[in-house]
Write a structure and sequence with these properties.
141 residues, alpha+beta, Aldehyde Oxidoreductase, domain 3, four-stranded mixed β-sheet, four-stranded antiparallel β-sheet, 8 strands, 28% helix, elongated
């Protein structure tokens, strides 16, 4: 069941995501937190922040990604909570939180990883990376 599917400018609450997926039917929770790091091996320079921009339908598209994944889970009970942050983020800020609960750890880990991969490839969210020298570049386009 999809508990949270948000694209938001609000600070992400990891505890709320964990609480949303906890259930007496599940025995494992996998958690992924994507944070803004202070470097990028693809550029020469220190990263000081990111600006995330999303398509207006990104939240609806996120829910669709999660629904398709839950439906393909072969009857395994999945509890899913996902939020992607948009706007201006500083180094250390959380940009993505994915929490998945399942009856067993293998399914929870696999679903969590699949969600992260699908978000990276299918969700229309773009990031502009700012470096310490004031230069910026769109990443992943």
């Amino acid at each position: 069941m999809i508990r949270i599917a948000r694209v938001t400018a609000d600070v992400l609450d990891v505890g709320a995501h964990l609480a949303a997926v906890r259930s007496s039917r599940t025995g494992a929770v996998a958690l992924f937190i994507g944070q803004v790091r202070d470097h990028d091996p693809e550029v020469d320079g220190r990263v000081v922040g990111l600006d995330y921009t999303a398509h207006p339908d990104a939240e609806t598209m996120l829910r669709g990604i999660l629904v398709r994944l839950a439906e393909a889970a072969d009857g395994d009970t999945l509890e899913i909570a996902v939020s992607h942050r948009i706007g201006n983020l500083d180094v250390g800020d959380d940009a993505l939180v994915v929490a998945v609960a399942s009856a067993h750890r293998a399914e929870a880990f696999a679903a969590c990883r699949e969600i992260v991969e699908r978000i990276k490839t299918d969700l229309p969210v773009w990031k502009r990376q700012w470096q310490h020298d004031g230069a910026s570049a769109w990443v992943g386009l």
